[in-house]
Amino acid sequence: MRSGIFAGLLLVTVSAATAFAQGAPIKLADVAELSGGGATVGNNWKNGIDLAIEEINGKGGVLGRKLEVTHADSQSNPGVARAQVQKALDNEPYVLLGPGYSGSVKVTSPLAAEAGIAHIMGGEAAELTQGGNKFLFRTSFGQQSSMPKVAKYINDELKAKSVAIVWVNNDFGKGGRDVISKEFAKYNIKVTADLSTEAGQADFAADVSKIKAAAPDAVFIYLNEEESARILKELKRQAVAAPLVGETTLVGQKVVELAGDAANGARGHVGLTTDAPVDLVKAFREKFVKKYNYVPDHNGLKGYLAIYMVKATTEKMGKVDAKKFADTLHGLTIKAASEPGILMDVTFDEKGDIDRQGFLVEIVEGKQVVKQVLPKLN
Amino acid sequence: MSNLLDLLVAGLATGAIYAIVAVGFTLLWQTSQTINFAQGEFVMLPAFLMLAVMHVGAPFWLAIILGILLSLLLLGLGFKLLLVDPMLRHGVLPLAIATMALAIGIKEAVKQFFSAEASPFPSIVPVGDVSVLGRVVSLQSLGVLALAIAAVIGLTALLNRTSIGHQMQATAQNPTVARIIGVPVERMILLTFLINAFLVALASLLITPIYLAKFSSGEVLGQAAFIAAIVGGFNQVRGAIAGGLLIGVVDNLAAAYVSTQYRAAVPLILLIVIILFRPQGLLGRPEERTV
Fold this sequence. Notes:
The complex is a heterodimer of chains A (378) and B (291).
Chain A: H1 2-23, E1 26-32, H2 39-58, E2 67-73, H3 78-89, E3 95-97, H4 102-115, E4 119-121, E5 136-138, H5 143-156, E6 162-168, H6 171-186, E7 190-197, H7 205-214, E8 218-222, H8 225-237, E9 244-246, H9 253-259, E10 267-270, H10 279-292, H11 298-317, H12 322-329, E11 333-334, E12 346-348, E13 354-355, E14 358-364, E15 367-374
Parallel strand pairs in A: 1-2, 1-3, 3-4, 4-5, 6-7, 6-8, 8-9, 9-10
Antiparallel strand pairs in A: 10-14, 11-12, 12-13, 14-15
Chain B: H1 4-32, H2 39-55, H3 60-88, H4 92-113, E1 129-132, E2 135-138, H5 139-161, H6 163-173, H7 175-180, H8 185-211, H9 218-232, H10 237-257, H11 265-277
Antiparallel strand pairs in B: 1-2
């Protein structure tokens, strides 16, 4: 009799626990640059995440469970980012999201790998996915994918024989500078000025004077958004006429907003832009603007996509399994037709790098104009 | 050498802004023994006050006027009455620490109420170029330089050629004697705070279009102006002006001809060298203390 009661209680307890586990929210942890030099990056990323979660939860969640995210501020400081990730991992999240700065990703990704959970981030430094970390996934192209396209554009379209390179002296900037320097060498394009600048730098007068003195056929600019805006203003102030070419951070919405007229004419390759001629991207833009009252840059798209990567991968597995998540995402192709939130067809390779369409854009009268759509490779 | 003129003009333009801010340091020190470590944040805040006014639909010119008035109220009158007066009776060191706390408070408040992200800020000087000695020079650099020089000349004229200026100088040199000879010392000290508030608002107006409005932008500016004040001579307005211009030019030339990566170190090296050989600063006067 007594054993019967015990068995009954056990059954009830197990059933209740299972029911609770099925209904419990799926916990995600986000560590992003909510203040400091990368505040634009982090806040766009965060808003993209929140928008996607709101949408998904509004439709019943993932496998019947709601998504729940905690946001922590890295203050754009790798040391703080690492501490925040350590703290976030103590709560055993399903997936780690962010940061956006490559330097911060570099010091936080080993922690997620050690915990055995997938780490979906926004960093673009080439080296991040080259070290064999099986848990790290990009939401944007790595420099090894984007820089060859930029160098080809400078050679083929601009016919430049010499360039000045301006880069920010951190992991992101140095990675980009190293990759594109090799690409320029392949085309025999001479680097007449190679200028390293500091993150958060306010005064670019001397750097631009050096560029003027070098008289290059084109200027390649690889700085964070705010510094990109400042150097564009200074380039205009000092009347530099050479074409200004960069990557996503030169032609983003925030740069255009900050630099004003000085951004006109800047061009670059972008992996993601809300001006992309893609219906789902346009729809995303409308939803984002309606919710936050401003046009997001690529980081807003990255945050949004990160959540839909979580959704698609989990639904592919058919269960919430943090340990199997990374294995499932490697080699996965997510079609926009079946998962509209992913916006464009996307494939993740064995290193966690991403393959999808890219765009060549130019700023014309304060707006991004897509000049060319670069197709998905595979 | 062909870009030397560009570098000099840009350096002088930035240096002139450092000079305006540095003058505030020396004025407050001379009249009330106040070292304001929130001076950089004092330059950052007016831009946000003006942006806030514009945010409610006011035109830029009205935002400038209201921004300056609010600066006078908050950073002049409020700063003196609410922080300096209560703290100064406890000594210079507690006051200096209080201004550090104020700097953090202002920064965090701006971050909280506005944004952690940078914002664009309109320029009062038109964008364009002019030809000077056969070189194309930015109109904005020249405009900033001209306005900053005009402010400094105006201040110097006020100090040297008006009765109020003489009373302020008397207060700075010896408040006790000034009081005996009938100078309204308290009023002169308040005037100094108001002048400082006006100068930081002007500096904010000039530099924010270039540096962008950001909660953390006062850090670099405050540090540069503080170094400028020491290099030029902390107890002399003309020293602060010279120090500001010197730091602006040296910083730009160092970035262009020495190393961009070590540019931040150059003003500090200059500071150390000057303190070693001329502790009172380039144009400062030695201060003796009787014990």
